[in-house]
Structure formats: structure tokens, C-alpha cells
User: What shape does this take?
Amino acid sequence: MYMTKLVTLSRHILEEQHSFPAAKGDFTNLMMDLTLAFKIISREVNKAGLVEILGATDEENIQGETVMKLDAFAQDRIFKAMDHGGNLCCMASEEVEHIIPIPERFEKGRYILVFDPLDGSSNIDKNVSIGTIFGVFRRVTEGGDGTLEDVLQKGARQVAAGYVVYGSSTILVYSTGAGVHGFTLDPSVGEFLLSHPNIRIPEKGKTYSINEGNYNTWDENTKKYIQWVKESDKETQRPYGLRYIGSLVADFHRNLLAGGIFLYPSNCKDPAHPKPKLRLVYEANPLAFLVEQAGGKASTGTERILDLQPTALHQRVPLIIGSAYDVDKYCEFMSRAGATV
Ligand code: AHG
Ligand code: MN
Ligand code: MN
Assistant: This one.
């Protein structure tokens, strides 16, 4: 029986930390605090079907708090796990309009955390995989509270990024810029154990992920590309298969392991005002960091995601992400005349 060596996430991060002489252990502490929140969210997600955690119930818990919607619950657990560790100077979340300061009474650190506390939350009541997405930056301002300038950094400046998929098992995938590694939660011991070391995304996939229901909102070049993926592939003599879960993290995770392309193009019903859906800061950028670390690509269709200068916390971008060959092929279609994104 081949036994992979047992490596916990904390051991893995410590070993990675040793390869960064400048690391002072604060990043390791940040990640340990974050994974505690993930374990708690995983426990709640796995109970969700039982405790009707879809909306605010009328029950109060021991602290007198109303038992909250799962995405607000996830938001609250991540905030409470991260606000006092002294590693962050501020946070930003999909669930909160403005940047989230570290409470006055706690020490501030040199990192910024951006996150989507629960991605795909519309799926939770269908027992479909959902997840959390996060990115970490070093601050660019000197001392005191972190500012919007610290948060709105280009994705290429992330020092780490990752996601958790709360599915048939809870898997955490992260990178600090030294490859992409996956860990599976063993709930019986409460540890994330290394299960997918050095993930590399296949150069070319066999599936595409897109919400075909939006066909009539796509620009002409996107329609032509989707037509192309449905024709028989010259190399494999078969068309691409369609896989679409409707949770970005779950669709992304499948493509990372098996290869493939995920597309959420802008709604171009009004070509003068294309409307993208996914958020740059805490959805596109962290996943773009990961996919490039795994040998893949992430683009708007015309620009590399990690090169975009964010201008607003919740700004949205078209997201084309996955196997390098497939993302390049889409961008080739988008480079034809008349492309709008
Ligand atoms: P969130 O639940 O954080 O708002 O994200 C939902 C996103 C993403 O998970 C998914 O890829 C996309 O919404 C699905 O959108 P459609 O239902 O329009 O296909
Ligand atoms: Mn999301
Ligand atoms: Mn969300």
C-alpha cells in the first residue's frame, strides 16, 4: 500500500517559510488563523442541510446572535479569525461595501487579506459544491490603518492566494508563488493533509465551462469561439464537453486538475456598455495567481488579469481562465475585428 508522507498544511507552510529568509513567521500565523475559519465554515456547510442555514432563522445562539445566512456566517467567521492576529492592516470582502479596518484594540500587521467568503452561495440549498476564495498582499503604505491603496494592488503583486471547495470533501488549494498545492481536510483530526502536491494544469483541456443561457448577451467573437469548441477537435477528433456547476471555485478546481477553460464573458447586449459579472479583487485575481502558478492563463479576453490596475473594490471583469492553449485560443478569436469585452 503506497502511503504518501503525511504533511499537514501548517508543516507545509513552515517548510515554505524557511525558503523565504525574509519571512518572519507572520505569514505562517496568518495562514493558520485563516485555516481555522475554513474548518469552522466547512463544519457549518456540511450541516447546512440539517439546520436550514439558508436565511436568517428566528433562533438565537448562545451569544444572543441571530443564526445567520451562510455567506454572512462565513464572512463573520473569517473576520473574527483574522482581526486579532496582528498580521493584517486591513481586509476586504465581497460582503462588505468598504475596506474592513482592524479594530483599534488590535495590533496591525504588514499584510492585506481580500476574500469572497462564500462563492457559489446560491447553490448551497441544492447541496452543490461552494467555496471561499482569498488573496494576500503586502501593504504598500507606511504604518497605521491599511487603505484602499493597499487593497487595490495589481493581482501580480499578490504574495499568496488560494481557495477552499466545500464539496464531497473540503479541499484547500493555495500558492505562495512556489507552485500550487492542495490539501484535503480530515475532519476526524481537524487537519488539512497534503493530497495534491505541485498541481500543474494540463496545457490543453477537453471541456469548456460557460453559462450557455447567456448566449444572446455574448459578443460575436465569443459566439464564434463557442461554436469552434463544439466542432470536432482536429487533434482528438471530438468536440469539447460542457461542464458548468455555477460555483466558480468548483468549476475552476475541476479545470485546474483535469484541464479545461472557464469563461464568464461580459454581457454585451449593449455593446457600448459591456457588463461583466465576476469580481476582480477577490474572485479573478486570486484564481489568476493560482492558475499561472500551475502553468495556465487568465485573461479578460484581451488583457492578462494579473496586469489589471483595480480602480474600485467591487469592480467586475470578464474572466477567461484555465489551460494555456485554450485561453490563448479564445484570445485569438477576441483579437479579430469587432471584439468588445
Ligand atoms: P458568489 O456566490 O460569490 O456571488 O459568486 C457566484 C458567481 C460564481 O460562483 C459563479 O461562477 C457565477 O456566479 C455563476 O453565475 P451564473 O449563475 O450567472 O452562471
Ligand atoms: Mn463569488
Ligand atoms: Mn460570494
